[in-house]
Amino acid sequence: MAGEALAKRPEIIVDPGGVPPAALQAITEAVDAIARLAEDQDGGEINRLRRRARDATLAALATQGYFSPTVTLEAGTDIGGETWDIGIVSGKRTTVGSVDLAFTGRITRPEFADRVRKLREDWLLKAGQPFINSDWNKAKSTLLDEVSSRDFMLARMTASQAEIEADTASAALRVTIDSGPQVRMGELTTDGLKRVPEKLVERYVRYSPGAAYDQNKLDTWQQDLQSTAFFRGAFVSLEQPGKAQPAPAPNADRARAPGSTDLAAATPAGDPSVSGAMPAPPPAYDSNGEVTLPVQVRVVEAPPKRFTGSIGVDDEAGLRVESLYRQNVVFGQPLTMETGFSVDRLQQRVYADFLLPPNERGYKDSFGLLYDHSDIQGLDVTRYALGATRLQERKGAGDSRVEYETRWGMLLAQDHVKIDGGDQYILPTLTATAEWLRRDVDNKYDPREGNLIAVGGGVGVTLDTGEPYTRARLRAQKWWPIGKLDVLTVRGEVGRVWSNSKVRVPDDFGFRTGGARSIRGYKYQSIGVQRDDAVVGAPTLLVGSIEYDHYFDERWGMGVFVDAGDAAESFGDMSMAVGYGVGARVRTPAGPLFLDVAYGQRDRDLRLHFSLGIAF
What we know:
One of its GO terms (cellular component) is outer membrane. Pfam families: Omp85. It comes from Achromobacter veterisilvae. This is Translocation and assembly module TamA. This protein has helices at residues 21-35, 43-63, 113-121, 133-148, 198-204, 215-226, and strands at residues 11-15, 70-78, 81-89, 95-104, 156-165, 170-178, 182-191, 231-238, 244-245, 278-279, 290-301, 305-314, 318-327, 336-343, 347-355, 363-376, 379-395, 403-419, 424-441, 450-462, 468-482, 486-499, 529-531, 534-536, 540-551, 556-568, 577-588, 591-600, 605-615. By secondary structure, the protein is mainly β. The chain folds into four domains: 2-89, Ubiquitin-like (UB roll), CATH 3.10.20; 95-180 and 245-281, Ubiquitin-like (UB roll) (Roll); 182-241 and 297-301, membrane protein fhac (Ubiquitin-like (UB roll)), CATH 3.10.20; 305-615, Beta Barrel (Porin). A hairpin with a 2-residue loop joins strand 27 and strand 28 (591-600). 13% of the residues lie in helices and 48% in strands. It has six helices and 29 strands.
């Protein structure tokens, strides 16, 4: 029979009658949810769903402040099946007529008068604004959060009411917050510590027992603990005696949407006073007094030891093997030890670093030992060193993606230097360095848009002769997205060393360039000052590059580039070494692969540059 035929989903046509886009979206979402139920239903069920669709339209209008609308739903048919034509005459939109915020509990004492006044000033849903359900909920939850986040952790919303006057289309809002007693932080308790000593927790969770409760402090302590290598998770809170109490019946909000079947259709969701279970202070608490609650830190410790390794290959160093062993508690102390090695044809390194956990100001201190040997372009250097570093990392204000890094270092080193066809000597030095870096990119490891700038320098002295030396360096890079996948990159670097002409400075203080990540088309670090049969560090450096990368898809691409620069005795002595070429770009699961063919104009030579790393 026709009445029993299965129905298709009806087509919805809404005449909004001048309601704003937010209200139309709420109506569309509500009606679409019901229309989906119309598929494969018989005729009797379809009639019931039409009534539900009209009621849902009325309820959606009420959430946007329209409490006296006229809504019609006419069913029809077209070539595709049934249609629902919904016509709306919204009527006058309800606005907030008055706001009454009341407070009870300890917060009513004279010392909190300024805070109460500010709470009233910061109330989000003010007189004259449209009465919108989501704004009403947000204003209440924000008010409760502002009270309970400091001093009054046990604060509750004891009443919230919105009385709608249909004739004047106005809403009278009333909210009552019971602050409860003033909460102070008591003794520190920890849970979950096994290997990590408790003094590590005390390094971050710093306060004097009896201090006023402040949720921002608890959040900061929790984030600091989670940022260390010692814990996989951390949670900091105040212990709350008593269990969650059943919520009161949902009768606090009295704004009812026309056509709704019960109060819940018009009750703002998320109201702490009308939904869910909530912790209530035990009856023994004096709402006008004070209470001290212990600070509890619960942690899950990270694995104590970790071993990683990697194999890489590039055009200059050939095969490279690296290994790292990490242990995050050393001799029962809250230290992280990292020790490892890296070996390739040009350089061999063995090191042991000890990293202290970040302090309350975010400084990450470390110290370590190093053995390093390199033989590059006729300069053979063996270094034994003891160093210390302080690193501070911080984010930009608000939701900014900007990141800042500041690094200070001190290095005591003894270098054994051999120059092919020339001198051999021992160079003991003490050097202090500093670098400031600002990074603003869309992706830290594969940027398409943004910029990076770093400024650094250092001062040092040769310990055998007492001669000083100084260095400054600036580098910058900028990425511009072109189309959906392409990238234009410009980078530059400039550096200068000041010293007596007879002073020998450490190899890493002078400047050499050339190779895959500097000036392509030339051998690695082959551009510098020629001394005997070797290339040694120069007092000045200037490098620039422009590159355009075109990607055929998310994985495969190609690039064209021009690099230029020099490292010389002075900027006036420079003769730019230019390199240009093309390259392949491949994003692989093992890491990015760069394969460039570049022509070095100064050497009149064509060189292949490539690099790939695999972690294991």
